[in-house]
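Quick start: read one record
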Amino acid sequence: MKDYRSITFLPCSDIKETAHFYRDLLKLPVAAIQGENLYIFDTGYGYWGFCQYTDKREPLSGNHGVCLSLNLETDEEVLAVYRQLKDICTVAKQPAHHPDFPVFSFFLADPDGYMVEIQHTVLI
């Protein structure tokens, strides 16, 4: 079977703010910059592409239910990242164990309001 790598493309309203958040604050490596309006970030499992589209399409955040999740190896790593980001990012939910799933996580809001979950869960 082919080993696919995925890229999820999401609209953003200001590519410079978005790039700062994902590159400088979350420390995701930039895999590619295409033109002036598109950054692709390497999440370690695949890629997230953010594009400030010229047709002015709206971000899929807020009521649309988009959650971007980054998985770490341990609960302690999640807490360490939380301590690094809590004073420089918008924390939407404090670190906690999820009541319905075996997940320990916290949530940040990116500049467009996308929910970014920093979590520890066991992946099969």
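Residues 15-25 form the longest helix (11 residues).
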